[in-house]
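for the recovery benchmark. tokens below, seq after
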């Protein structure tokens, strides 16, 4: 009996042993449910992915158990996990990770509602949290922010001048400015007409870059008006364009008179334009034009097609006049050609140039510098002036060999003043001399003589005197001068034996005789004294 009872107990134990796990597995597993609430600012159609991790004590780490996504600017998503071992645990530990912030500039989370992300703050993983088996639900909140940039750029193109003729040059200026809220990179300016394709590199916010002095010559083939466009592009897709317009004007037909002249200091040259008409001959076309004495240019404008000629009606006293249609001629003395060859103006916009040259025969003034002895003096400076005291020829200096300077290229029929402007050492200044050069007297020689200063101290360059009328002496026995400015003679000066001077000779002889008598008497007295 006892043995039977043992067998029954063993069978019962086996049944219980095998039936207990079955009862465990027959129970429903606990499903943990975590709701992720998502807000996002600045996102349109982007996808956010969230991952649910639960703590595994065997590996002492969190392991991934579920993922889910939420789309667009926000919403909610549920992450679940069925716990197969809930009979063993009354609670579970979890954490949620935002897998990839989709380019967000700020991420924040909270276990309570209403987190607010700020730019630059990245926090894409929650702290771990615990959910009770008895209430297996929880909520975590995420917020993402994307600072939306606004790259922008402007381009401005201007041209100067805004109207020009074919063949003239216009100048463009192109400026680009970063008017957005981010720095721009790979900024490139293109303008096919100007042959421009320039990468200026990065451009910071608020900075302007200017391309200046871009010259363009207007060709025949360009449309009128000439409009061209410059475009700027960037890596940030910011772009802009601007255009500038140039009106192409047709030049008026004109005849340009180019004038050269040699030897003229005053006056002007006058030119007349005539046009040829069949049956009427040459007829004055419009008012005369002047060109100053130094040469230059002037134009007859507003002309129609036809035959023209230019006449120089006032040659300003030229000794030679010539003209050419091909280039500047050179006049010679005696040339007399005051009328240009016939000039033909063709269709639209044609211009022609006629060249005139006049020469005026010139003369020379030669200056010789000497001292009273006829010796040439070195270092004397002379300047030639007009009557109004303006300089006609700059100062030149004499040399010791010839004592000469020459002023040439001076216009004829003009009065000049030759002035010593630098005196040689030890000599005074010579007086000014005036001279007029003419066709008959084109070359003049002037002689200047300087008296030595001799230390009289009065600075007037004459022979020194003491004002008492006699001849001053310097103690060496010779005569230095008589005060009247004539040539001084060294040695004894001979006086004429006439007039008042005869009395001085009588007195002199009487004094000599008295001296002789006194000498004889003294000699006798001395002899007597010796005899005693």
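predicted aa per position
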């Amino acid at each position: 009996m006892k043995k039977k009872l043992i067998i029954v107990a063993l069978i019962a134990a086996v049944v219980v042993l095998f039936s207990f796990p079955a009862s465990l597995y027959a129970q429903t597993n606990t499903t943990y449910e975590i709701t992720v609430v998502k807000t996002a600012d600045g996102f349109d159609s982007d996808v956010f992915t969230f991952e649910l991790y639960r703590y595994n004590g065997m590996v002492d780490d969190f392991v991934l158990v579920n993922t889910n996504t939420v789309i667009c600017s926000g919403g909610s998503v549920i992450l679940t996990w069925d716990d197969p071992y809930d009979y063993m645990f009354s609670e579970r530990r979890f954490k949620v990770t935002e897998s990839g912030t989709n380019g967000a500039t700020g991420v924040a989370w909270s276990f309570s509602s209403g987190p607010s992300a700020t730019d630059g703050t990245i926090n894409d993983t929650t702290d771990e949290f615990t959910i009770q088996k008895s209430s297996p639900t929880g909520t975590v909140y995420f917020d993402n922010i994307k600072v939306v940039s606004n790259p922008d750029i402007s381009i401005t193109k201007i041209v100067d001048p805004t109207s020009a003729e074919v063949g003239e040059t216009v100048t463009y200026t192109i400026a680009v400015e970063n008017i957005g809220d981010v720095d721009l990179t790979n900024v490139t300016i293109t303008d096919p007409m100007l042959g421009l394709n320039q990468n200026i590199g990065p451009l910071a916010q608020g900075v302007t870059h200017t391309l200046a002095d871009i010259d363009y010559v207007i060709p025949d083939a360009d449309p009128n008006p000439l409009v061209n466009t410059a475009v700027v592009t960037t890596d940030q897709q910011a772009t802009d364009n601007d255009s500038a317009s140039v009106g192409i004007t047709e030049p008026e037909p004109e005849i340009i008179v180019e004038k050269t002249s040699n030897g003229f200091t005053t006056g002007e040259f006058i030119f007349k334009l005539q046009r040829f008409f069949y049956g009427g001959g040459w007829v004055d076309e419009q008012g005369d034009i002047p060109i100053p004495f130094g040469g230059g240019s002037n134009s007859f404008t507003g002309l129609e097609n036809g035959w023209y000629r230019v006449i120089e009606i006032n040659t300003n006293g030229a000794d030679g006049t010539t003209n050419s249609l091909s280039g500047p001629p050179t006049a010679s003395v005696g040339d007399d050609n005051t009328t240009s060859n016939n000039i033909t103006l063709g269709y639209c916009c044609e211009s022609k140039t006629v060249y005139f040259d006049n020469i005026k025969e010139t003369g020379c003034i030669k200056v010789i510098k000497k001292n009273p002895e006829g010796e040439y003096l070195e270092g004397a400076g002379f300047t030639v002036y007009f009557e109004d005291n303006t300089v006609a020829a700059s100062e030149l200096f004499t040399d010791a060999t010839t004592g000469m300077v020459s002023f040439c290229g001076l216009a004829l029929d003009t009065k000049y003043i030759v002035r010593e402007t630098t005196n040689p050492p030890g000599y005074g200044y010579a007086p000014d001399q005036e001279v007029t050069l003419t066709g008959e007297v084109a070359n003049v020689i002037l002689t200047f003589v300087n008296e030595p200063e001799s230390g009289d101290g009065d600075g007037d360059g004459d022979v020194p005197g003491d004002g008492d009328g006699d001849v001053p002496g310097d103690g060496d026995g010779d005569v230095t001068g008589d005060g009247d400015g004539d040539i001084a003679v060294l040695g004894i000066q001979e006086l004429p034996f006439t007039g008042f001077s005869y009395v001085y000779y009588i007195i002199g002889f009487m004094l000599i005789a008295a001296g002789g008598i006194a000498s004889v008497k003294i000699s006798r007295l001395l002899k007597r004294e010796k005899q005693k």
